[in-house]
Write a structure and sequence with these properties.
mainly alpha, 157 residues, globular, 72% helix
């Protein structure tokens, strides 16, 4: 891949990929590692053939989410204790109410991921299923359960 093209892709999709992965990783350091590894894979692999920019974005999010899963499965992650709280949050393009972000943070990781991909990245259920490697019905169930939990957390009826 040419360096100009790689720079364009990085500038265009870095924030989107980071926000998607941050929802699953739960902390800045793991999210940054996962995103960095995804972009390194893109840089190192010359055999990838992408149809369009959306295909690149979807590929990067999928790879970064898989990297995040690898971090969660690692020995170090399972056997560590975190002493510092999360001090920064990803920046969203639109103004989201702080209560909504706090409620999202309280959701389980698998619910946060589908909510983020569906509402913020505007992927369809079919696309989310492909990205996460789960069935479309599982995505729909997770979306339903996440919405129900959000209603309880926010206090809406």
């Amino acid at each position: 891949m040419e360096s100009e093209e790689y720079c364009r892709i990085a500038e265009t999709y870095l924030d989107d990929v980071y926000r998607a992965v941050f929802c699953c990783c739960g902390n800045r350091e793991n999210a940054e590692d996962a995103v960095q590894n995804a972009f390194l894979k893109l840089l190192r692999e010359n055999e990838f053939k992408f149809n369009d920019d959306e295909h690149i974005k979807r590929w990067l999010i999928t790879v970064a989410l898989n990297e995040c899963k690898n971090v969660w499965k690692s020995f170090w992650n399972r056997n560590k204790v975190s002493f510092d709280d999360l001090d920064t949050e990803p920046s969203y393009h639109d103004n989201i109410h702080e209560e909504l972000i706090e409620a999202l943070d309280k959701l389980p990781k698998n619910y946060r991921a589908v909510i983020h991909l569906y509402y913020y990245e505007e992927y369809s259920v079919k696309e989310i299923a492909a990205i996460l490697g789960i069935s479309e019905s599982n995505v729909q169930v997770r979306l339903k359960r996440a919405r129900d939990k959000m209603k309880v957390l926010i206090g809406e009826e």
